[in-house]
Specification:
By secondary structure, the chain is of the alpha+beta class. Helices cover 20% and strands 34% of the residues. Strands 1, 2, 3, 4, 6, 7, 8 and 10 form an eight-stranded antiparallel beta sheet that branches. Strand 20 and strand 21 form a beta hairpin. The radius of gyration is 24 Å and the shape is globular. The mean pLDDT is 95.
Length: 569
């Protein structure tokens, strides 16, 4: 997959990015017309991309087909980093399988492909139904297409499909007991092979393994003591290279040692209190939609660091792995979640077993493919659902228990907009609140009353020891709109509201930080309530031009950054 580093040096990887044949199928008749065997003489598009940026397809929702020819011989592993939203895959007319969910990777292994030119065909569908995740009503733009890279890997001998790194820090955090899980696959006939694990070039595990062709094997190590470790932290994001390798194959990743815990109604990173200075960020580009180039990600992070942030919420879906690599390198903490969003989910939908199971599958994928990133501090279960309902209670209970069992050394949370009536607070480590005083209701002076009012709810719910984070707050401003009055949609009003709110939250003893809604203006499906069809609550516009709010927030965030550093020293 596309990362900041090569995941494989021994294994041959061919990226299939570039020109693909493409055709829209609004009547969904492609299979009846044998599109899965080839598309014939049709136009071509560039992959990755979203089809909503093609002329005449800005609002297209439905089925489209893609075809790519390539040369290959041997056993193939097809890797799809993200396809929006449901995808069926054929190779030379033979069906490989289906995947649902537009923001996480999936894969298929095909043995013994004969030498020659082969044809990969994808049927991609971004339409909605009663069990879609997300549902049709979302406050972002639900693009369609192949939004991240596709590659084909040649598997030979004993191959490494997956590696998960775990550890337990000693009390002084200078040593760790590490252990790992690795999934292996026999691509060729059975023979002895050495499987090794290296941490910063030091071999920490070695075993001779023999697998028959087509067999899978999981290695789960005992604890291995590592001394004199360097911790991953916001100020010093130390990373370790880990390599899972065999005689002819390898899998590279990067990991970090750190501890995250809650005590005294606060979050502690490596034993030091951390307060979150964050923004919500959509993976959205004004011209390219959700197909965001790496250079644009770097630009965003430069702006976010200049702002004084130490955290980002990846609203409302798993972000590209290369973006998480950047966060790992820079020491920026991350909140990763799945796209169960808000008012689109009716109470009956929340209780639909098919929806619940799909959501659980998405959590499983998020944990599996993002587990090794030290920047991920929060797993987010859902956002703005009807937390007053029994259905939401059962969903939250299921997801929380899964994440606590399978996602070691992270905090589990969700974002609620019904915080005064929420019945699910027992299923989170940190309470996340979305509130918009000064925009949808009241004046922003109302923020002064909020901490005391919500504290009563915390105590009544038995959550007086749980810290609270403002997961969303803010208001919209049209870039360049100024008046002599402090009114809605002006840059002045947005700057004043955010300054007021952030100051209130900073003074509240049970609050541990803020994620401003939002970093930049982004395209929205809720066009009737949005200026120029964009959610304009960004503190910079969609072209990354700063509004007045950017400088107001920067003044406060940089001040708090300095204060926090002085306290820790």
């Amino acid at each position: 997959m596309r990362r900041l580093f090569d995941e494989h040096t021994k294994r041959k990887v061919t990226y299939l990015d570039g020109s693909w044949k493409f055709i829209a199928d609004p009547e969904n008749i492609g299979e009846a017309n044998n599109y899965q065997c080839g598309l014939g003489d049709v136009k071509t598009v560039i992959v990755p991309s979203v089809w909503n940026t093609y002329l005449g397809m800005a609002s297209y929702e439905g089925v489209c087909w893609y075809e790519k020819e390539f040369y290959f011989e041997g056993t193939a592993r097809f890797m799809f980093e993200a396809v929006m939203t449901e995808c069926d895959v054929w190779l030379d007319g033979e069906y490989l399988g289906n995947h649902y969910g537009g923001f996480c990777q999936f894969e298929f292994i095909v043995p013994d492909i004969k030498a020659g030119i082969h044809k990969l065909v994808l049927k991609v569908d971004n339409s909605f139904d009663e069990i879609s995740i997300p549902q049709k009503v979302v406050d972002w733009y639900h693009y369609g297409g192949i939004t991240r890279s596709i590659s084909v890997e040649k598997l030979t001998g004993l191959t490494v499909l997956y590696g998960k790194f775990d550890y337990n820090l000693s009390k002084d955090r200078k040593s760790a007991d590490v252990f790992f899980t690795a999934e292996l696959y026999g691509a060729d006939k059975k023979k002895d092979n050495t499987f090794r694990v290296k941490l910063n070039d030091q071999v920490i595990y070695s075993e001779t393994i023999s697998l028959r062709k087509g067999a899978y094997h999981t290695v789960v190590s005992d604890k291995i003591r590592i001394d004199d470790i360097k911790l991953w932290d916001v100020e010093n994001p130390n990373l370790y290279n880990i390599v899972f390798e065999t005689d002819g194959d390898d899998l590279h990743d990067r990991v970090g040692f750190r501890s995250v815990e809650i005590k005294d109604c606060a979050v502690f990173l490596n034993g030091r209190r951390v307060d979150f200075r964050g923004v919500n960020r959509h993976e959205d580009n004004a011209s390219l939609g959700m197909c965001v180039p790496a250079k644009s990600m770097v630009r965003d992070l430069d702006i976010i660091e200049d702002l004084g942030c130490n955290a980002i919420r990846g609203s409302h879906y798993t972000n590209a792995k290369i973006f998480l690599d950047m966060l790992d390198e820079r020491g920026i903490m991350f909140w990763s979640e799945i796209p169960i969003w808000g008012c689109g989910f009716s109470t009956p939908t929340l209780g639909d077993k098919r929806v619940v199971e799909r959501g659980l599958d998405m959590h499983k994928e998020m944990v599996r493919y993002y587990y090794n990133h030290p920047s991920i501090i929060f797993w987010g279960m859902h956002n703005e659902i009807n937390v007053e309902s029994a259905e939401a209670y059962e969903m939250s209970k299921l997801y929380y228990n899964f994440l606590k069992e399978h996602a070691n050394n992270r905090l589990v949370t969700y974002a609620t907009h019904k915080y005064m009536a929420d019945t699910c607070f027992e299923f989170c480590d940190v309470i996340g609140i979305n509130a918009y005083y000064g925009w949808y209701n009241y004046h922003y002076d109302k923020w002064e009353d909020f901490p005391e009012e919500f504290n009563k709810k915390r105590i009544e719910s038995g959550c007086e020891n749980k810290p609270v984070i403002m997961s969303e707050f803010g208001c919209a401003a049209a870039y360049g709109h100024h008046t002599f009055k402090n009114t809605h949609w002006t840059e002045e009003y947005q700057a004043n509201l955010l300054s007021k709110a952030i100051d209130v939250f900073r003074r509240c003893p049970y609050m541990i930080g803020t994620f401003i809604w939002q970093f930049c203006d982004s395209r929205s499906d809720m066009v009737n309530a949005k200026y120029k069809s964009f959610n304009n609550k960004g503190i910079i516009d969609r072209h990354r031009n700063p509004k007045m709010a950017y400088f107001a927030v920067k003044e406060l965030y940089q001040k708090y950054k300095k204060e926090d550093k002085e306290i820790q020293e």
